[in-house]
Structures are given as structure tokens and as C-alpha cells.
Amino acid sequence: RASSTAPSTPARATRRRAEAPRRDKRLEVITFDLDDTLWPTTPVVNAANEALIEWCSARLGGRFPRTARVHATMKRIREQRECEAAARGTTAEPMSYAAIRIAGATRAAIECGIPESDAVATVARGYHLAWIPMRNAMARELVYPGAAEALRAIRERHPGVAVGSITNGFGSAAGAGLGEFFDFEISAEALIDEHMVHGEMARKPNAYPFQLAMGIAIADHGYSGDADSWTHVGDDVLNDCYCAKQFDFKTVHVCDPTTKPYESGGGAPYAEKSLRGGVEANSDAVVDGVISHVRELPELLDRWYV
Question: Contact at 8 Å (CB) between 203 and 107?
Fold first, then answer.
């Protein structure tokens, strides 16, 4: 079982970037981050945020708050919950980004003079009927060119490989129209809301999501446990490469300089904020391969695996 505490700050690396696997090895498992790896997060989530506002405004009128006010209220709720928990000498109960968004939009609406019952009912339904469908629709529309072809090529060139996703967000490969290429998906949002896993534990860079993925790979897909036979792909040096390297998995950093990382209104986990600078300064210690786009991945894997 993973610890809910943050991983320790890494020491400065003294070794060169890890060697690629010997080419006599077979790729058994490959896992992907989703947001900013297979599609751009910012336009996808921004569209979903606006869809929620428009859906609620159509039912509650022009008083309903805009996205900026909702985000500010989300931050205030998060900070208030943390302060109250600290005063009790405990940690705040698990709350996903989805739950914080619903709470923030509801409180902001009430503060704008909308009756509480109207705000609660409308925001709760709007999240499921407007925000989620728009997020999935925009992800399908904005999947990076060549991503589906790359996933298909990996399936064809590495028969028997288990393909999974490990994401801190609410998105899914299935929701983006890529479900046919994936065997399993792990979402921090689902771990928090459905299984009551604390946010600091459910989200990368905590080891728990990868431990869960390993259990699935072993139990359902016959993973041998050979770390060199597992590759993780993602856009974030800390949440993806550093986290996967704790298990000695091979890592691929998708580094597109044109991508602007999304800033969540719900706030980043403590471990992410405290570790990022040190990890990124020593990225060579945790990154085995760098590509600018996931469509370059099949060629890289062909150099690493049989």
C-alpha cells in the first residue's frame, strides 16, 4: 500500500540519462498520461468550464457568476478546508477537482444572490449534463494529429502489449474516442470520488496510481515484473517521468514547446508544488527518451524493443 506522504526531494543526479533497454526485450506494458500528452488540456477544460457557466446561466439568469469568479471561489474553498482541518489536527476529507468545482460554482452563485436550492440543483446537474460532455467532445475534436495512428501502430508492432492510462484529471481515453486502444484507465478523480482515496495519494507524483497500475497489469495482463518492459509516456517531468522512475520504468517525455500547461482552479497537490523545481533541474536522471509529439513514439519504441 502506498504511503499518503509526499516522496522525498531527489538528490542531484550524478549519473547520465538511463540506458535504453536491450533490444532483445519485449514491450509488455505501456502507460500514458492523457492531458497535454494525447490532447491539449487548456482549450479542452476551458470549453468545459464555459459550457457549465452557459448551461447554468440559461436556467438561473445573468446573475450566475463567470468562470474567473468560480475559480477564485474554488481556491477559497480549498484553502478554507485545509485551514479547518489543520486546526482540528487532521487532513481534509478527500475532494476531487470535480467536487471542488461543483462546490465553488454553487457557493459563488449563492454569493451572487441566487437561492441556495436553485444553485445546488442547477450546478450539480450542469456539471454532469454540460461540463463532462463538453470535456469529452473537445478532447475528441482536439486529439493531437497522429495520436490514434501511433497507438494503432504500437498495438500492431508489439502484440500482446497492455496499454493503460494514468491521469490526475477527469479525462479518459474512452471519452476522447481512443478507448479501443486501451486496456485499463486510472483516474485520480475516480479514486477520490469512488474509492475515498485522499487527493495527495490519488494523484501523481504519489506512487499509488502506479502501484495500482502494476497490480492491474500483473493480475489481468500477465506482466512479468520486468521494469525494462514497462514504458510510461507523459508531458510532465515530475508527475510522469519522476513518478514512473521510482519503479525503474522506462520513461518518455513528450515535450511540445507550444503547449501551455493548464492551471487548475482546484490547486496542485502539495508534493507537486514542493518537488517540481528539484526534479525538473535534474530531468536527465528520470527521462530516458524525449519526443515532441506522440506520433514519434512508435519509432522510439522500435529502437528499444523487439
Answer: no
Of the CA atoms within 13 Å of residue 33, those in its CB half-sphere come to 28
Instruction: State the Cα–Cα distance between residues 46 and 68, nearest whole angstrom.
Output: 11
Q: Is the peptide bond before 205 cis (omega within 30 degrees of 0)?
A: yes
In our burial notation (b when 16+ CB lie closer than 10 A, e otherwise), range 93-127 reads ebbbbbbbbbbbbbbbbbeeebeeebbbebbeebb
Q: Is 135 within 8 Å of 171 (Cβ atoms)?
A: yes
Q: Determine contact, residues 265/70, Cβ cutoff 8 Å.
A: yes
pLDDT, mean of residues 244-262: 92
pLDDT in tens, 125-175: 999 999 999 999 999 999 999 999 999 999 999 999 999 999 998 899 999
Render pLDDT for 27-43 as a digit per residue (tens, 0 to 9). Answer: 999 999 999 999 999 99
**Residues counted in the chain:** 306
As a whole number of angstroms, the distance between CA 164 and CA 26 comes to 17
- What 8-state DSSP symbol labels residue 306? -
* Arithmetic mean of pLDDT, 101-127: 97
- CA–CA distance, 203 with 95 (Å, rounded to integer): 12
Q: What is the pLDDT of residue 13?
A: 33
